[in-house]
Fold Taurine catabolism dioxygenase TauD/TfdA.
Amino acid sequence: MTLNTAPHRPLEMRPLSKKLGVEIRGVDLADLDDAVFAKLKEAFDIHGVVVLPGQKLTPEELRAFGRRFGPLETHTLLQYTLPDYPEIYVLSNLEENGKPLGAHNEGIGWHTDLSYKERPVMATMLYGIMCPPEGGDTLFADMSAAWDALPEARKAELDGKKIQHSYQKWMATRADRAPLTEEQKAKTPDVTHPLVRTHPATGRKSLFIGTGTVYGLEGVSNPEGKRIVDELVDYATGEDFVLVHKWTEGDVVMWDNRRTLHTGTLFDDTKYKRHIHRMMVQGDVPA
């Protein structure tokens, strides 16, 4: 499939699965006019995951691209953000003068980014600057397709329920992280979100679930509430709903947190180096 973007050469669009994701070639994110951007935004809303290979971007160019989707979100933890670019978070196993350049082995476990905030992020973008030749894949699960495939009776049981999120409870379990400061705690109170949310652009319903910061189901005592959520995650991340992205240097991959779960995977960090820039676009209150 191609999009006619005359006078530019047509964009090449290749679906990545029957349900989720599209690869788009023929676009330079550092030189993007409004007409081509509109097509990219449409593809993002429809397909949920967009892969844009072959990019060469400075931090300024990456930030400028992200800002076209909306205001950028900063991470709660700032020690691994890029100097002069607090919106760009570094994922890396590189070191400089014995100091890590970024967070390593982060994002393992099915989740949506910053779901513990009142306004979870809309979009996340990763720019692969240095990628291992094997391992380190990113997996995406289609929460709209998972919702659509549920029996109607199960949908009726779930629609209207709310999930409880706690960044503070989750961080308290992380032996590899320093305790949160009082300022960080004040910025991350516990929140509840609908278990089923409606996409504002497409009107499709999606499961809005995950692991990590999710600690229960409102109105259902634990461990039963957590068990229900975990069973839904297991169901929705089954093979029928999952897309695997294998990284190539120069890839920009962006996904819609409103309809997907994602997880990173491990790689042999004794053999390979990885250096990735991550950026997030602010979202709205799930409805």
